Amino acid sequence: MPMSFEEIFSEAKILPNDSRAILAEKLVASIEDDRDPLVTKSHLDEL
Predict the structure, then answer these.
(1) Cβ distance 29 to 21 under 8 Å?
(2) How many CA atoms lie within 13 A of 4 on its CB side?
(3) Count of domains forming the chain
(4) Which of 31, 35, 9 is nearest to 20 (CA)?
(5) Is the dihedral of CA 44, 46, 30, 15 positive or negative?
(6) What does 1-47 look like in DSSP terms, one character per residue?
(7) Rounded CA gap, 33 and 11, in Å?
(8) Angle subtended at Cα 4 by Cα 2 and Cα 5, rounded to the nearest 5 degrees
(9) 25-43 pLDDT, tens per residue?
(10) For the range 22-25, what are the long-range contacts, defined as Cβ-Cβ under 8 Å and sequence gap of 24 or more?
(11) Is the pTM of this model over 0.70?
(12) Torsion of CA 36, 38, 42, 44, to 10 degrees
C-alpha cells in the first residue's frame, strides 16, 4: 500500500536541511513539468 501524504511528510521532516531542500526543488520541478505549455502560454498572454 502506498504511503499517505502525512507519512511521507513525517519522513521528509527528519531529513537534513540540504536533503529537504533538494526534495523540495525536485517536487516543484515535477509540478512544473506536468503543466500544459498551451495553458501556461494562454495565462501569460492574458496577463
Answers:
(1) no
(2) 3
(3) 1
(4) 9
(5) positive
(6) -PPPHHHHHHHHHTS-HHHHHHHHHHHHHHHHHHS-HHHHHHHHHH-
(7) 24
(8) 130
(9) 898 888 776 667 676 667 7
(10) none
(11) no
(12) 70
